[in-house]
Every structure is written in C-alpha cells, then in structure tokens.
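Risk register update: the risk that structure generation would not scale has been downgraded. Supporting records follow, first protein first.
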Amino acid sequence: MKVYCGHQITGLSPREVFDYYDRVRKDLAGLGYHVLSPMTAKEQFDRADEPEFKSTGYTGTAGDHAIVERDCWMVQQADIVFMNLLGMTRASIGCTSELAWAYLLRKHVVLVMEKENIHQHAFIKEMADIVFETYERGVDYLRKLGGT
C-alpha cells in the first residue's frame, strides 16, 4: 500500500524536515508501505543555505506550482494519508490543503495531533478518519492496518 506523509515544512530548517521524512520513511517502509513524501526529489534543499523553508517564492522543478501539483498527485496515488501535526505552533496551509484533497478523494486519513494543537478545528478533525495523540500510536495503527 502507498502512504502519503504530511508534516510541517514552512518555518523549519532543511535538516529538521529531511530528518523527519527520513524517519517516517524508515518507520513505514519497515512495515511494508511504499512512502510518498513532499520532499521527494528536493535534495537541493538539503544543501541550501537558507535557515528555514519559506511558504512561497520557489521556482523551477521544485517551484510553487510544481510543489502543489506534485503533492496533490501524490495524495491521489496514496491509499492512506498519514498527517503528523504534532508540535505545530502555527497553522500549516500545506497540510490543511493535503487533508482537504485526501478527504475529497476519500482516502483513509490517519491524523496525529495533540489536544492543544493549533489545528484543533472541526474541519481538520472531521477530515480525519482516526486521530492519535502520539506519533508512535499512529505508526502502530498503520502497522496493524498493514498486517505486519
């Protein structure tokens, strides 16, 4: 099964983002999932001098339009969307857009978010099929769902 993984990118350093996606890819690939990530083919950002990712202003093959189109395409390809909103202190427009696409496409959405998260909103909670308060519980559910 294919799982698309969403997580905050804007405001985080390239190292934080790549480390997170390396971890989730390792965790879920170890359970037999094919992992789709918004950081696929964006290795140039791992070497960037910018201290943090910005919300807009990118061009070329990893430009604003390409990012939106490709992430939407990946959500379409996925069987499951694993959305980790833990620890976010500002709303993620990218993550909420991915959740909306997943909801519209009737994907199985596994959401990880603590009770005091900025995303505690009816739209976010209702677009998820199941919500966990820890990353580990979300991954354990995916382990059970995948049958490993």
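Supporting record for the second protein:
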Amino acid sequence: MVNRLSWSWIALMCIAPLPVAASVAALGWRRNESILGNLAGTLVIFGTALALILRESVELDQLTRQCLNAGLTCWPHPSAFERYAIYAAIGLLEVMALFLVSLAVERRMRRRRYAPEWQR
C-alpha cells in the first residue's frame, strides 16, 4: 500500500460529497440564503476532504511504522503531500462546481419574480 494510491477512497471523494453538499446547500438556497447554503455545502465538501486526508495520514503512519519495526526504511510513493493534494484538489473542484450550481439556482429564483414578458 506504500507504493499505491487508495483508488477506492479517491473515487468516494469524487462521487459522494458533491450531491450531499448540494442537498445541504439547497436548504439555504430555498430560503433565499444562498451564502449560508454555499457555506454549508462547502463545509460538507472540505470536511470530507479533510477526513479522507486524515485517514490517509493515519494509514501512511501505520505503514511507515511497520517498516521501521521490521528494520527497513521505506518511503511512500507517491509522497504523502501528493496524496493529500489529490483529495484537496478534488474538494476544491467540487466547491467550484457547487458555486456554479448556486449561480444557476439564484438566477432561476431571481427570474421567477418577474413576469414572463419582461424576461429575456
């Protein structure tokens, strides 16, 4: 595991947080509190990324400790930083996607207030 990425956890980061965050954010969006909705959704996404980074850190620490106890020196490949950066980058992309969805929702809600003949 020291020389491989955790593809199942990376896939989980790619799939799960954005729909959950959008559902949480929609609660704020429906009440015309788009900033609070975006903040709640962002917390879900970044919280998931942080939890997966911490999980990866604990796993790498255990593997490194096993190597040291066996009298070996082993370095993870890719490095710990690269592994953490993968989760952080996915989280950042998901937050940007959440904000783009928020803009579309706000635009739709704003247009609802005007009569159809005034809309372009």
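The chain has a mean pLDDT of 91. On this basis the risk owner (M.S.) recommends closing the item.
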